[in-house]
Amino acid sequence: MDDVLKRLSYAIERGKIDRESPHPPDMRNQDGADELTCQALGAGIAPSEILSNGLVPGMQAIGEKFARNEVFIPDILLSARAMTKATEHLKPYFQSGDIKLKGTFIVGTVQGDLHDIGKKIVSMVIEGGGWKVIDLGVDVSAQKFADAVRENPGCAVGLSALLTTTMSNMQFITKKIKSESPSTIVIIGGAPITREFASRIGSDGYFADPQGALNFLNSTNKIGLTHK
Asked: Quick one: which of 60, 63, 58 has its CA closest to 73?
């Protein structure tokens, strides 16, 4: 891997947004994701390579640390901010088609549930893993999920719930999606969810952490990161 991409990956992992950012203290006055992305582009590195060999490994590293309880939610949020800063420089290449994402992931908290933090963390990690994320928000109805699936052929879906009283809505939403689009991958997550419940309602999997969800999506995806 090019040295600048290694440094970019590490900046993402540590949540170093730019040179002016005071976090982390041991990287004070060092270039962050902002400057390093510009340097990589200036060196002629393909935007797709910057994404796949710079941003994605950094988010994967912090995601794996989070799964092992080595870092916490604020660390994930800082890494996500660094990634967002970096991707601002890559947006023109997404729009032009020079970068092709792995796929589309539709996520939302199911109807009757207003909890948002867990869903946002999952969204950040999966977006950092090279996917386009469409966040439908909270209290999302089965019809809204089904409409989003119809508008995004080939997408995968993530359902989130924190309340035991809304778990039944997961089953209803999963059934509706599968009845209209049997091949659509549906994964679920949230504090009260178990693998047994996920299997019982006909979903394709349950994951206790965002990195597990990303790894599963990558394993079911055949597109990969490419460029023209």
From this structure: 63
Domain that holds residue 91: 3-96
At 198, list the tokens: 């996920």
User: CATH number, domain at 115?
Assistant: 3.40.50.280
Closest CA to 192 of 181, 201, 179, 183: 201
Q: Which amino acid belongs to residue 203?
A: S
Query: Helices 117-128 & 210-220, crossing angle to 10 degrees?
Result: 40
> pLDDT tens track of the chain, all 228 residues?
579 999 999 999 999 999 999 999 999 999 999 999 999 999 999 998 998 899 989 998 998 898 899 999 899 889 989 998 998 998 888 777 777 788 999 999 999 999 888 898 888 889 888 899 999 999 999 999 999 999 999 999 999 999 999 999 999 999 999 999 999 999 999 889 999 999 999 999 999 888 889 999 999 874 433 333
Spell out the residues 6+ positions from residue 204 whose beta carbon is closer than 8 angstroms to its own. Answer: 185, 186, 187, 198, 220
Output the domain CATH number for residue 27.
Answer: 1.10.1240.10
Q: Helices (H), strands (E): how many in the chain? A: 10, 5
Tell me the C-alpha distance between 219 and 55, whole Å: 19
Q: Are 225 and 102 in contact (CB under 8 A)?
A: yes
Number of domains in the chain: 2
Scanning the structure block, which residue is given the tokens 């659509």?
A: 184
Dig out the tokens for 89 from the structure.
């420089």
Report d(CA 100, CA 222) in Å as an integer: 12
